[in-house]
Specification:
Elements lengths: L1 H24 L4 H12 L3 E5 L6 H12 L3 E5 L6 H5 E7 L5 E7 L6 E5 L6 H4 L1 H8 L1 E4 L2 E4 L5 E6 L12 H4 L2 E6 L5 H11 L13 H13 L4 H12 L10 H6 E3 L3 H17 L7 H12 L4 E2 L1 H6 L3 H11 L5 H4 L3
Helix pairs in contact: 1-3, 9-12, 10-12, 10-13, 12-13, 13-15
């Protein structure tokens, strides 16, 4: 028990230092930094959406530096091919002049992968990430090749410039643990950005957590207990996103085509465990579930034609679900 307590104390100290280092570089995006960190601790991938210049790429690069992870950036373009990501066989020749094939690994073979403007690549190239994100491995030239551990994909996309882009299919979106909206900064944050980036020196984060420590912390996150009422709360939130479910709200029934899969519930519970640890708690509270529900569900709620025509946002749908879903299951409450 003391070993777990010591590891939890180390977790809070190290992660507090990590957030401090990231805050020195990424200004005015504290919630975005925390949500990205929670997703990484839960072992998942993140989709960052925001207009250009808000620090999405900077966050990804700084996260890799502060975690001492091997960073790879892939700039997605319409002419990018799957082999450009995964790697390919190249012809080699030895000292005796004999020719053969050798696998040349692509940029996917890293710890933290920045998939920049992922919606600019064709669906064929986007799908090359599916096996990597789900299984932690890729299949090239008929051979299965494991990816480094830990392995995370942080993808970015621009929501306002849609010409020449390819929206991510539902199967691809479901592989992302979180979808995080990156908001624009206020005046004070902009002034601080100018102060830090237009001077003689530019801040860079120091290493706060090693790759080995991150692996141990990810294991600790999974050990955090979540009582059945808390799990039921997460399950009812996810059920409420499905228009055919008993728990669905009127907005869901009217505007939603498809709701979240069980992956949404898994994302909520895992990230709630990480959030609880970061808050200094040894168990998951319903507040932890509610805190991570929006980034875990917003990309798993697919609107129908009426919802899109009315301009309803998935955030509004999930927000109403959080308001109308009691933290204690009514069936259980009636028996108390």
């Amino acid at each position: 028990m003391s070993d777990v307590a010591d590891l939890a104390r180390e977790f809070r100290e190290k992660l507090g230092k990590l957030e401090e280092e990231l805050g020195r570089v990424v200004v005015g995006q504290r919630d975005v930094v925390r949500q990205t960190l929670v997703a990484i601790l839960a072992g998942g991938h993140v989709l960052l959406e925001g207009t250009p210049g808000l620090g999405k790429t900077l966050l990804c690069r700084s996260m890799a530096e502060a975690l001492d992870l091997q960073f790879r950036r892939i700039q997605f373009t319409p002419d990018l091919m799957p082999a450009d990501i995964l790697g390919t066989l190249v012809v080699t020749e030895d000292e005796q002049g004999r020719k053969g094939f050798e696998f040349q690994a692509g940029p996917i073979f890293g710890n933290l992968i920045l998939a920049d403007e992922i919606n600019r690549a064709t669906p064929k190239t986007q799908s090359a990430l599916l096996e990597a994100m789900q299984e932690g491995r890729v299949t090239t030239a008929g051979e299965v090749r494991p990816l480094p551990d830990p392995f995370f994909v942080l993808a970015t996309q621009n929501p306002i410039e849609m010409e020449g882009t390819y929206p991510l299919p539902e199967a691809q979106l479901d592989r992302f643990l979180f979808k995080i909206d990156v908001p624009s900064q206020g005046v004070d944050a902009l002034v601080e950005i100018l102060r830090r980036t237009t001077g003689a020196t530019v801040e860079s984060p120091s290493q706060a957590v090693s790759g080995e420590e991150l692996r141990r912390f990810r294991g600790l996150v999974r050990e955090v207990p979540a009582a059945e009422p808390v799990l039921r709360y997460a399950a009812r939130l996810v059920r409420a996103t499905n228009p055919g479910a008993e728990e669905a709200t009127e907005q869901v029934k009217r505007f939603v085509r498809y709701g979240s899969s069980p992956r949404g519930a898994q994302a909520i519970v895992l990230c709630a465990k990480a959030s609880a640890l970061l808050a200094g708690r040894s168990h998951v509270d319903p507040e932890d579930i509610a805190a991570v529900a929006l980034p875990a569900l917003r990309h798993r709620v697919l609107l129908n034609f009426e919802g899109e025509a009315e301009g309803v946002s998935p955030d509004a749908i999930v927000g109403e679900i959080l308001e109308r879903t009691p933290q204690l299951d009514p069936k259980v409450a009636s028996q108390l």
